[in-house]
Structure formats: C-alpha cells, structure tokens
Amino acid sequence: SVVDDLIEQEGQKNPDAALLKTIPGVGWFSALLLASAIDGVGRFSDAEHLVSYAGLAPTTRQSGNVTRSGHISKQGNSQMRWALVQCAWIAIRHSKRFRKKYMKIRRKKNGKTAITAVARKMLTVAYFMLSRREVYSEMA
After folding, report:
1. Are 70 and 60 in contact (CB under 8 A)?
2. Distance between CA atoms of 61 and 72, rounded to whole angstroms?
3. Do 130 and 41 meet the contact criterion of CB atoms below 8 Å apart?
4. How many CB atoms sit inside 10 A of residue 99's CB?
5. What is the pLDDT at residue 66?
C-alpha cells in the first residue's frame, strides 16, 4: 500500500531504523518506532538502562539479604513495549536464538511471560547493534 511504501522510505533514510530492521520479526514500522523512541543509543549508559526505559525491567523487592524479582515495571514507553512484544511473536517463528529463549522460559512459566522475556532480549540485542553499528547476527 501507499502508507507501507512511505514508512519503508522513511525507514531507509534513518540509519538506526535500517539496522533494527535486520532483527528477525522487526518490520519498517516497528524499526522506525523503536529508533525514534530510543532517540540515539548514546543516551543510555548500558542495555539495562534502555530495558528499564522501555518498562521491561522486573520490579525488585528487597528485605535484608532477600531479593525478589517480580513482574515487569511497566514504567516507561508503552508504545515501545507494545512494538517489541508484537515483534517478539514473529521473531520466535523466524529466529532459532529467540525461539530457544522463548521455549526455555515457556517450560516453567506461561507464554506471555516468555514472550515478554524475548521482547526484553530483543531490546538488549538492539542496544548492542546500535552502539556497535552492526547488523543482526544469529550467532551472537
């Protein structure tokens, strides 16, 4: 369609979006959305800060020596989180790396928890791709 062509043209103009598009499951729309939400990977000191910005970091509760991890915080960019989860559903069908992560967590937890973990993994991969200016590699 005309809109899809326009989105693709804009994506090809954006170097970050073009890099993100190489991740399995990420289309031009999602690549542009993520690139604009991240707005330069240099803003984040490490991948954990980016994950936290997207609201995909688990909440933690501490008391004395005991630390418990809970659900994701959901504090952060909701569109970014939504796009990553949608991409993750496609990625588990097209990438051995992401499927393996999904299946490992799926055995112990439910599918939604597992897909959220894959979305988090995808964002971590995206951080390193953008900071190193490398295209996606299944082997990494």
Report:
1. yes
2. 12
3. yes
4. 16
5. 85
